[in-house]
Amino acid sequence: MCVTATILATSSGTTATQFYKACASSSLCPATGNQTFSVNLGVQSVLASATCCNTDNCNSQNLTAPTPQSSNGLLCNVCVASQCNTTLQCQGVEDQCFQSMMTNGTNSFPAYGCASKNLCAAASSLGSLPFMQMVGTITSGPNCTSCTTTAAPTTTTAAPTTTKAASTTTTAAPTTTTPTTTIAAPTTTTTAKTTTTAALTTTTAAPTTTIVVDTRTTSAPTSTTAGALQCQNCTDETCSSTVTVNCSSETMCVTATILATSSGTTATQFYKACASSSLCPATGNQTFSVNLGVQSVLASATCCNTDNCNSQNLTAPTRQSSNGLLCNVCVASQCNTTLQCQGVEDQCFQSTMTNGTNSFPAYGCASANLCAAASSLGSLPFMQMVGTITSGPNCTSCTTTAAPTTTTAAPTTTKAASTTTTAAPTTTTAAPTTTIVVDTRTTSAPTSTTAGALQCQNCTDETCSSTVTVNCSSETMCVTATILATSSGTTATQIYKACASSSLCPATGNQTFSVNLGVQSVLASATCCNTDNCNSQNLTAPTRQSSNGLLCNVCVASQCNTTLQCQGVEDQCFQSTMTDGTKSFPAYGCASKNLCAAASSLGSLPFMQRVGTITSRQTCSSPTTTTTGPPTTTTAAPTTRTPASTTTISAPTTTIAAPTTTTSSPTTTRSNVSSIRMNVIPLLLGVLFFHLF
After folding, report:
1. CA–CA dist 200, 197 (Å, integer)
2. Phi and psi for 81 in degrees, rounded to 5?
3. How far is CA 545 from CA 468, 521, 565, in A?
4. CB 466 within 8 A of CB 340
């Protein structure tokens, strides 16, 4: 089968329209026709309109985007901070409760939510969620069961109400009420019932079991320990709906409205939950703020200590202005770029964080209350998706903007006697800390490295909202580039300014770089120059390219035999194996010659470093033209006939050839038969000639 789908993909409250076209397995497309797939895991959801067909290239059309669904009155559990007892309202075609364990890199996590029956069936066979593969792979499950109606919670909540009448004797009663019998084995529960009434002391452990049972029956929020504080809890990051949860050890509720900025895009988010004492040491209003350069959050929060006191949405915080303090921030793992702190940010934050198998330094400006909470929680409040803190955090008071002026000369003198000065810092902290702290405190590292080094402008974030001057190490060029970056059909304009290696900038002047891997592509207009701060200007965005008649293969679902039309300056077929975290994957596509040359040296794709690192030496070869024959035959021809590609990529040649013969057998057989005839005629003449003479 072939499939074409238009998808509404929502992540952390942001919805994007995506298109999907590919060959389809029988689990995704058991028959021809239209289907609607839907799954909602709380923070992430997809709704897809799909059409399955079984004739050549029948999936060429783009479908109309599906209409957002409304609640269908069914309920399932969803996971919030690894606790999977929050109720989620299902929508539209979602009639199944989905439960599984998934893995992304080294992260293993539960994935619960609402799903349509056809998506459940496909996920069981595929080992991942259709149209949501980036979430991870399914390692256990999935288990799909029919959802309950909204009436179910009402009947289960009645049980705790009756037991509250005799609170002295009924702390164990919820354990033995009907909800337990419905899920657990009836024989075991009846014996438990008799023992619990006899001794109340033994029943304190029983509620723990009921929480597990209730997770399955979507009634956990209404029956945990008696007397626990109850708080409103968001079911997703947009807080489109909330449920009441019983706090475990927390004695505070919190509601927060957050301005979350990532790569220059700001979104308003809401947060409601039980709060630890590190986040809410007392009742009242607080402002939290942290800025790591590419990502930042500013949150207005209110802490309170009565049941459901966090039901209201707060007004979004007002954007902060510079407060004259400075800290260091990390740019491409170098943590010596100066960042201007804002508003309540009075601390320099330094830590090492981990996301999956990626470990990275996280430096920036933070408020004192955020620092205190991060130390206790092991993650950044309101920014948990960044990762977990594995070392630190160290928070120190920021310096003022006056510091760099007086201290720019100091590093030059102290470097001369670095052996003697290391003794003093050792008394305060360890030696490695001192070398980093010197840069953070004086904020003058960027302006004092090797004498005579080239100075270039460097963006402090991906939108290049501000720049700082940095001293290049071995680079002898500066570069400024304006990039059209496309991912899953969404195009954004990005600015890049930095020191440039000789592989990226072999000479001064203008260049156009381009690479297209199918789902992701970049087109960059760049200027290379070799005088101090010569890269301060922003270039005009490049004009979109049109097809140049050349063809290369691209990978779709790890199969690298799909033909891609190259555009503009793309005159090379790029092939490599790349790694992102623990994921290794093939990356094929069209590229410009200068991008190929730079990638070989840098070990990553210029202007597309986030895709991953190149782990297997890439090859770049000349593509074929579309004019060599009909499109059907050219998909196989370039791979088998071009001398360059045959020598450099023998393995892909064999894999690509097989699918081509099956999909386009009429075309290939005609050309093969005619070539066989032409070859057999001389052979027969030779045999005849041999017998005659």
Report:
1. 7
2. 55, 50
3. 32, 12, 11
4. yes
Place of tokens 């940010």: 345
Which has more confidence, 497 or 425?
Answer: 497
Q: Let me know: does 611 contact 571? Beta carbons within 8 Å.
A: no
Task: Please give the average per-residue pLDDT across 405-416, as a whole number.
Answer: 34
pLDDT tier at 341 (50, 70, 90 boundaries)? very high
What whole-number distance in Å separates Cα of residue 383 and Cα of residue 241? Answer: 20
Q: Tell me: the pLDDT tens digits for 187-241?
A: 333 333 333 333 333 333 333 333 333 333 333 333 334 578 999 998 776 788 8
- What is the reported pTM? 0.35
Strands (DSSP E) contained in 455-536 are 455-459, 467-471, 477-487, 490-500, 509-516, 520-529
> From CA 406, how far away is CA 131, in angstroms rounded?
56
Domains and CATH numbers, the chain: 2-149 (no CATH), 153-163+170-196+205-214 (no CATH), 231-400 (2.10.60.10), 472-661 (no CATH)
pLDDT at 439: 34
Neighbours of 281 (CB within 10 A): 15
The answer to whether 465 and 458 have CB atoms below 8 angstroms apart is no
Which structure tokens are listed for 624? 């074929």
List pLDDT tens digits, range 309-329. Answer: 999 999 999 999 999 999 988
Beta bridge partners of 5: 20, 50
Query: What three-state secondary structure class fits 104?
Result: strand
Q: Residues 479-489: pLDDT tens digits?
A: 999 999 888 77
Per the structure block, which two tokens stand in for 14? 């942001």
User: What is the b/e burial string over 182-218, where b = at least 16 CB atoms within 10 angstroms of the residue's CB?
Assistant: eebeeeebeebbeebeeeeeebeebbeebbebbbbbb
Closest to 364 measured CA to CA, from 289, 425, 432: 289
pLDDT tens digits along 103-141 = 876 677 888 999 999 999 999 888 889 998 677 889 888
